[in-house]
Amino acid sequence: MKLGFKVWLLIFVLFFSLLFIFGLPPKFLDSGVTITSVGSNSTLFDQGLRQGQTIIAIDGNKITNFEDYTNLVSGKFISGIETKLIIQTDKGQYTYYGDTFPDLTVKEISKTNLLLGLDLAGGSRALIKAENKSLTQSELGDLIEITQNRLNAFGLTDLKVSPVSDLSGNNFMLIEIAGATPKDLKELISKQGKFEAKIGNETVFEGGARDIASVGRDAQSARIEGCNPGEAGYVCTFNFEIVLSRDAAQRQAEITSTIPVNSTPQGNYLAEKLDLILDDNLVDSLLISEGLKGRVTTQIAISGSGSGATQEEALKEAKAQMKKLQTILMTGSLPYKLEIVKLDTISPILGEEFTKYILLAGIVAILSVSIILFIRYKSWKSSLALILTTVSEVIIILGISSFIRWNLDLPSIAGILATIGTGVDDLVVLLDETGSKVSLSIKQRIKRAFAIILGAYFTTVVSLIPLFWAGAGLLKGFALTTIIGISIGVFITRPAFGELLERFKKE
Amino acid sequence: MEQRNWHDKYYKLLLLIPLILILFSLTYVTINYQKTGDFFKKDISLTGGTSITVYDKISSSQAEIDLGNKLQNLNVREIYDFGTNEQRALIVETTSDWETSKSILEEYLGYELVEGENSDIAFTGSILSESFYSQLLVAILIAFLFMAIVVFIIFRNLAPSGAVIISAFADILMTLVVVDLFGIKMSTAGIVAFLMLIGYSVDTDILLTTRVLKRHEDNLNTRIFGAFKTGITMTLTSFFAILFALLIVQSFSIILTQIFLILVIGLFFDMLNTWITNVSILKWYVEHKEHKLKSEVEQ
After folding, report:
1. Could you tell me if B157 lies within 8 Å of chain A, comparing CB atoms?
2. CA distance A215 to A70
3. What value does the mean pLDDT take over residues A50-73?
4. Spatial CA neighbour of A351 closest among A116, A190, A32
5. Tens-digit pLDDT profile for residues A323-346
6. Which residue among B215, B230, B251 sits closest to A428, beta carbon to beta carbon?
7. What percent of chain A has pLDDT over 90?
8. Residues B219, B168, A482, A464: what is their CA dihedral angle, to the nearest 10 degrees?
């Protein structure tokens, strides 16, 4: 049987879709694990290990999947014993020494180019607006830049911060973080992060590049001082160095020059303390030694503490507090008080199961439809055609989604299902038109079928257009995948099916 | 004169069925609107509020009693695994804001909730959800209007286009009433389902109208019956496909369950509205036209 142009076109499009989904060479042949984050103050980061690289081997042992990885690294590090770890990635080899596991997270390598949205891959999504203020486009742009910097400084890299606006002209900032949800998400994204160092009522310096030239983050200039039992559990203190700008140092000298000195058994200190204030809460009060009075110094040590029920918890808390302070000192405060207006978190494990069930539901739906068609037309060809057309449509939608780097979220899945639904309807129209008793050529009949199919197509497309803007575009995925799906259906797959029917009838 | 079958005799009378249903639905929706200020019951994605999913085996009835006076408009339910039928999660919905809800729930459970690990959160602020709600209603209106324009362009004739549009409208209206009678609280996803319904319901109406108006072989009744055979296959396939999918998704996704449930109800009414409402109006129109044509010829 000779294949016509429309069938060739379908085969061509299918081929490219598979190429987009799996890449060349096909990604499902790849092995290893993908790095999702590397702590920016880790020595591995300094050597060039980055998020997105693929770990192929550890200590010379080949890694094919996530299980291999966990088997190789779990139990490797014992507190107090310096251990060496050699990580081989697709970009090079990195060596780590330490007694704790490096600040590194990985995930199973993806076997396709498909981008799974939060509903399927897990993660968190927050829609944010300024409190009591409507932001202009440029204000929103500034806000996004600062937020991006702050999240990156915190070590989160697998994220997207984007502006969205809705039908009523409101502007929002949309933050999407893939994978695990950071524990202090709210602190990170909506706390203004206003840091002030004050002596009495006078501000000496604030967070951000204007007053602060650099923030120490390496092992020498930032450390946990020690842990002690406190009132309830343990308290650990941290300490890190910062370098002030000339102006800020000058200001400090002027303010301290007028403060009297107190003599105490521990030493001579100024009568007023340096108060470190974060979002109007006192973090710590530092004694200022006599020697600093009226002197221009740019080196300052910042300290604080974290507490917890156990020493381990207190240590973790102190580290987190230190990281937060460092981040805020580096990036400065957000220009507006922010409010989370919508927040969704989805566990990664749930997402995986979700994908499984969606596939199951899809298969059951397609099978039940093929059975109904078989009963109605008493021909296995129509059922087979249905399965082939539907499967090709899904493959092409996924191919296009990979090509345009579209994140498949729950609305997109609903869109794919809608496409399958209209596909079945159109096939039934085609089967009935070609099978009618009218004395018309098969070409005429298929043309008639397409008059109906196109009518239905245009009504569906126009009814989806408003969804691109309504509801801050969060349901855009539905409109997009449905329109892509039914367009492919009406212009590529269903005509090819018509052509096949034409051949069958002629023979 | 060809023989008149029962449909020829009674099709106008049949119109009473959808007419009564439409009148009932309109009254229901109007009363509902006057009483509650809304067309349907809304869930927290449209009223604003928090939904916390805790991945643990916790009794919903007990939680409901214990948390009832602490969280506003509390609604608690359990989620079961499709395969093993074991409880996998507890979902707590309330109109309280997320930080309050989370701390109250943590106090009740006696452990910390970590999103993405032992729990998940979905929160929508009330101002935002109000604006979502009004925007989605506008979206439905615009979608409906666009659909009507396209239908009119396709048939370029007021009565048949009107019949398609009335059928689609009746479809949405009746589905809305049944959804409300079932006590379903509509979410943003539910509104999307109504958009899908516009597309689905118009499909069969376009098929019918095209077959009846643009084809000239066979008589009117044969054309209608031919369209019916095709159209009912279309609707039944979609109906069963969605019904089976619904059985699977109801174990894990509230959002998809709502979309599918609305579609199943909608497709049921689509059969009624296409094959009674639309057919009767269309038949009336065609017979009236043929009659007029005949009397003009006689003159």
Report:
1. no
2. 34
3. 82
4. A116
5. 778 877 877 777 777 888 888 888
6. B230
7. 7
8. 130
Q: Would you say A128 and A338 are in contact if contact means Cβ atoms under 8 Å apart?
A: yes
Q: Which CATH number fits domain A5-25+349-506: 3.40.630.30, 1.20.1640.10, 1.10.238.10, 1.10.579.10?
A: 1.20.1640.10
CA distance A496 to chain B (A): 20
Residue B212: C-alpha distances to residues A339, B24, B205, B215 (Å): 57, 30, 11, 6
Closest CA to B206 of A62, A425, A201: A425
Do the Cβ atoms of A467 and B139 come within 8 Å?
yes
The CA distance from A365 to the nearest CA of chain B, in Å, is 4
Reported as half-sphere exposure (CB side, CA atoms, 13 A), residue A432 has a value of 26
Q: Which residues of A375-405 are buried (b: 16+ CB within 10 A; e: fewer)?
A: ebbeeeebbebbeebbebbbbbbbbbbbeee
Q: What is the mean pLDDT of chain A?
A: 82
Q: Is B79 an 8 Å CB contact of chain A?
A: no
The interface pTM score, or ipTM, of the predicted complex is 0.84
Higher pLDDT, residue A148 or B33: B33
| Topology, domain B6-42+128-298 | Multidrug efflux transporter AcrB transmembrane fold (1.20.1640)
Could you tell me which of A323, A325, A307, A303 has the C-alpha nearest to residue A315?
A307
Residue type, A380: W
Q: Rounded to the nearest 5 degrees, what angle is found at the Cα of A230, between the Cα atoms of A228 and A231?
A: 170
What are the beta bridge partners of residue A242?
Answer: A215, A300
As a CATH number, domain A31-108 is 2.30.42.10
Tokens of A51: 């998020």
Q: Where are the alpha helices (DSSP H) in A76-164?
A: 118-121, 137-153
Starting at the earlier edge strand, list the strands of the sheet with A171-178.
Answer: A159-165, A171-178, A123-130, A338-346, B119-124, B49-54, B87-94, B75-80
- Closest partner residue to B207 among A167, A361, A429, by Cβ? A429
- The reported pLDDT for the residue numbered B1 is 41
CATH of A123-191+341-346, one of 3.40.50.1000, 3.40.50.2300, 3.40.50.300, 3.30.70.3400: 3.30.70.3400
The owner of tokens 């709502």 is B258
Sequence ranges of the domains in chain B: 6-42+128-298, 49-124
pLDDT in tens, A293-304: 888 888 888 888
pTM value is 0.79
**Residue B31: is it exposed, middle or buried by C-beta count within 10 angstroms (0-12/13-18/19+)?**
exposed
CA distance A189 to A160: 13
Nearest to B192 by CA among A476, A190, A340, A216: A476
Six token digits for residue A118: 């939060």
> Residue A199: helix, strand or coil by DSSP?
strand
Give a three-class secondary structure readout of A228-242. Answer: EECCCCEEEEEEEEE
Instruction: Please tell me the predicted confidence (pLDDT) of residue A1.
Output: 60
CATH topology of domain B49-124: Alpha-Beta Plaits (3.30.70)
